Amino acid sequence: MLTLKDTKFSILELAPVRDDQSVEFSLRHALELAQHAEKLGYERLWLAEHHNMDGIASSATAVLLGYILANTQKIRVGSGGIMLPNHAPLVVAEQFGTLATLYPNRVELGLGRAPGTDQVTMRALRRGRQETEEQFPQDVIEILNYFADAQPNQRITATPGQGTHVPVWLLGSSLFSAQLAAKLGLPYSFASHFAPRMLGQAIQLYRDNFEPSEYLAQPYVSMGVPTVVAATDAQAEYLATSVYQRIQSLLTGQSLKLKAPVDSMQGRWSASEKIAVQNFLAMAQIGSPETVKQGLESLLEKYQIDEFIFTCDIYDTQQRLENFSLLMNIKNA
User: Is the Cα dihedral 9, 10, 15, 21 positive or negative?
Assistant: First the structure.
């Protein structure tokens, strides 16, 4: 039976912007977190691509990855993910091929099928390109070919990129990417940190249909888990009110800037908003180290995943770093 010691721990970073700090502060804190994660022994740190969201500073994902790679030594760094409908596959391959050339064996490319933003922003990103989510399988294969060794008479090559063999992951919150990852023999990461409803079904579909490939001999699954770990359950619940406010703002179309914790959410959300936030955070682990350890062991027993990839929206940056220290203590206990 799998234990937490057997399970890899990683981090998904969205470079959250606080309501009292600048975007520069968030970007520099993202590096501070990466350096902290490297010292603690986390497997990888990924950045997520989002656009037109005032509370998320990781929109220029490849650029921020370069900053983090230049200032760390060994931790694997990648995208979780690049929203492929927003980009030409060749450009993505060249960007990540460049990073992989400069920082060998450290760069990963996680790909998502959704645009990750609203329709107006999507049009601003694409500027007339007729890219659709239905083209996702062909675009993934195109990128894999750009990272492979060049073939005779290949008309278009990614320079840099060709022959770098950058590891590609598929990300998803439904069944589509699970099926495609299984077909292509790629590792799969489920976005249960915000869309947990189909987690079990997607993992089962992926495992049942997995075809071994040159990339992967057997299925490999990671799952997103929001976390707020503190010395006591009461302190963690207090810190988590920043998370609750952020998700409430997302669901109601308000500013996503991270707000300070409050003593109580009573009177700050409606009954329906509270239920919606709880559904969004169904996989969240909030509490003392003992409470979170039990929760993670329960998730591991139920889903038998290979890796947890944690998010954290604690307001105070030092307490945010401490959250990831406590998580690693739980793993190593």
Answer: positive
Dist. CA 29–CA 48, nearest whole Å: 15
Cα–Cα dist 299/277, whole Å: 20
Beta bridge partners, 189, equal: 171, 222
Alpha carbon 203 to chain centroid distance? 17
Q: Which domains does the chain have, with CATH numbers?
A: 4-332 (3.20.20.30)
Nearest to 177 by CA among 206, 218, 198: 206
Q: How far apart are CA 225 and CA 10, in angstroms?
A: 10
* pLDDT digits 0-9 by tens, 274-315: 999 999 999 999 999 999 999 999 999 999 999 999 999 999
The alpha carbon dihedral of 41, 44, 48, 49 has a sign of positive
Pairing relationship of beta strands 44-47 and 76-83 according to DSSP bridges: parallel
What lies within 8 Å, CB to CB, of 316 at 6+ separation is: 239
Entry field: residues in the chain: 333
User: Residue 189 has which token pair?
Assistant: 């990461």
Contact 282, 196 (CB under 8 A): yes
pTM for the model: 0.95
